[in-house]
Amino acid sequence: MYYPRHELQWRLSLFFCSSIFAGAVSGLLAYAISNMAGIGGYNGWRWIFIIEGLATVVLAACSKFIIVDWPEDAKFLTPAERELLLRRLRIDDKGITMDRFDNKAKLRTFGDYKIYLGILMYMGITSVGYSTSFFTPTILKQLGWTSVHAQVMSIPIYIVAAFFSLLTAYLSDRMRHRFGFIIFGICVCTVGLIVLMAQNNVSVAGKYTALYITMTGGYIAQPVIIVWLANNMAGHYKRSVNAAMQIGFGNIGGIIASNIFPTNEAPRFITGYSVNVGLIWMAAMAATVLLVMMKTENEKRDQGKRDAMLQLPEDEKNNLGDDHPRFRFVY
């Protein structure tokens, strides 16, 4: 709503890095809060939920009054800045909209193959992020670190992942390209997982290095997957439904991750690592199918094979979203 398509990755990745940094400090924070056990008659784990949950609720309530819904209502912009922003957005999306969520719009939205491929991509890559919480403590324990020291030694892993995530975002926007960075991140992640699968022949330091590689690869690809799909949706209704479905159903990857690391397989976790490799390459295949289908559709539109839709009634034609013949998908 505020940014042209090839300026969105950097912004989303900045937001996404808050999740990465949360992973870096959450263990230490939880450890500190758990020391409040007994205060008010509550166990330590209750205080973790109370304090972290309350902070989230308060910030969410404040955001209602801080975050502006639409550029047209942004009072922090001058009239000239607002007009410039709206003009840039119109140039980027060619004025194509989906501002009514009527029955035809619902059919176009829920029948769009891109959303379901996006879910598969996100499900595959998000499993890695969840999985690291299961095998990272085991590897850190093998290094002889426990409790607070182990939590501290996990922080550099997240910092490196955040750095490469932001570097990828910058390059992706600069090059106006998404697909290649997704595949690159998946390849990097695969290398880390293969090292962990072969850990009987790898030193403990090598396993620790593999954690960096695995997490970095996952966090290179994950935010790009989100933005790539959003870039190819037109109309705020469709973007909203797409985001909800991709993130919501895609987080099934977390459910899978929680069930593929049985304790009796520690420390090798061969099932967990193997399934993760399969899932991230499922994401790669879904991304490849999406790329081919969008390229094919762009070619058809370039050849005028979708121009018949321009003869639709004006109100329907102006509510086609990314089905509009003038819309072009980006890769």
Entry keywords:
globular, mainly alpha, 331 residues, Growth Hormone, Chain: A, 0% strand
Would you identify the CATH architecture?
Up-down Bundle
**Head-to-tail CA distance between termini:** 20 Å
SS class = mainly alpha
The parts where pLDDT drops under 50 for at least 5 residues are none
How do the helices and strands follow one another from N- to C-terminus?
Answer: HHHHHHHHHHHH
Tally of extended strands?
0
| Average pLDDT, all residues | 89
Largest beta-sheet details: none
Q: Which superfamily, in CATH terms, is the homologous superfamily?
A: MFS general substrate transporter like domains
Keywords: Membrane, Transmembrane, Transmembrane helix, Transport
InterPro entries: MFS (IPR011701), MFS_dom (IPR020846), MFS_trans_sf (IPR036259)
GO cellular component, one term: membrane
Membrane topology: Multi-pass membrane protein
